[in-house]
Prior knowledge:
- The protein is built from 11 helices and 17 strands.
- The protein has helices spanning 33-43, 71-85, 118-129, 191-208, 226-235, 249-255, 268-277, 291-350, 359-375, 379-392, 437-453, and strands at residues 2-9, 12-19, 22-30, 50-54, 59-66, 92-99, 107-114, 134-139, 155-162, 166-173, 176-183, 218-224, 242-248, 396-406, 421-430, 457-462, 484-492.
- The strands form 4 sheets. It has a 5-stranded mixed beta sheet with strand order 3-2-1-4-8, with helices on both faces. A 5-stranded mixed beta sheet has the order 11-10-9-12-13. Strands 14-15-17-16 form a 4-stranded antiparallel beta sheet, covered by helices on one side.
Amino acid sequence: MKRLLLFLSADHLHAQLMSRGKIVVQHDFPDSPEGQKSFAEFLGTTKHPAYLLVDLIEEDFRQETIPHLFGSNRSALLERKFDQFYRGTPFHQATLLQRQKTGRRDDDMLFSALTNPSLIKHWLDILLAQQTPLAGIYSVPQISAPLVKDNPSEYLLLISWERFSGLRQTYFSKHRLQISRLTPVNTDLAFQEAVVKELARTYQYLKSLSLLPPGQTLDVRLLGHNQDLLELQMQLPKSADMYYDFANLADTARQLKIDYRFTDSDASQIFLHQLAAHPPQTHYANAAHTRYFTLWQLRRVLNLASVTLLFGMLLWGVANLWQSGNDAAKAASLKEQAQRTLSETQKITQDFPNTYAPAADMKTGVSVMRKLGQYGYVPGEILRPLSATLDRHPQIELDTLAWQMSVAEPVAPNTLADVPAQVITLNGRLLDFANDYRAALNYLERFQQDLSAQGYQVTALAKPLDVSPSGSISDQRTADNRALNFSLKLSRRPSS
């Protein structure tokens, strides 16, 4: 984005148009009717946002502590302070330095103003008449902070020279701006001589205002051309009260990523480029001064929104066209596939054999299938109750098991007589009963009753001891085996 940077001194205005960090056009206008006319003509050729940087003697700084307030109460308090300190100028501002950490935790504020508005007014009137979008009015001390942020000193004096305004001395306490002084430098006084002369005065001025604690060394950062700094190193007096830090303009420009070649100690381009890259949030202009900039921002936002909306609509339209083409192709493909499937279905239907059957035959067939379904026992359905019963009788050990279907088995009540019975022949042993036949027979009897409760018809084929009238009593144990053998037949039909 292009920006118009303006540098105003007491009797001169410098203008330069910048794009992507480089100077595109620059002009100088003297403070005269002819210069003001030329400036108005120049503004007629460019409508880019303007940033006005001033470097004037008539800039005042005051430190005040105010209560920590919010909203309208704070605004009213600041307006009373402005009316008290700077009634005759609209160019004023208040900057929060810090909030105190003890007591009521009040705010330490720095109030500043351009006390001679006539030096700005006629240039500002031209900007407003040309409807130039003015972003703000800034001063050199405001944008000096980045030049000292890397210095660890808590009491630092920054000295710079601007060709059309003079020697600027800005004092920072704990990296916060305190005061700033501008001394005009005439053509008869060299930059080095002005520094040597004014530095001693500024040191005494700081001591008189108690801005520099007793016994504290003042760190001085001198910003200038390498050749001038070499001469200053020889001319500045050696003093235990001050420590000098010589900052070459070329090195400073590289640190701040400023593309500019310096031929002397004029630091104006440092401040102008810094303003273009990082304009402070607070400045001396009010809403009436920046109304065209506000309109420019609004217009830019609307243009961006319009472009975004148009681009979105174009994308939506293209997507719809593309989707419509895809849908048409898919519809044609589906139609062709449906026609092909219908033709194949008709062909298959025509090739079907004649399977017509009378209703009586179909009924008979269904009945037969249902009957066959009753024959189709799954072994798990027959054996699952037997398995559960064996689990409940751990002293019975199963030796062999045979399963078959038989129509000769007696028909139990409430069962289907025309369905073959499922017959299970079970051979097993009774364990750990020793010579207690009565206990063994009782245990086997309970086992048979449990099987009967599961729906089996139980017939004992062989018992460990035949106690029937026709049987013979014999001991069936072997010499080394404590098991008692038995054999049972289980039959089961489905319920009717």
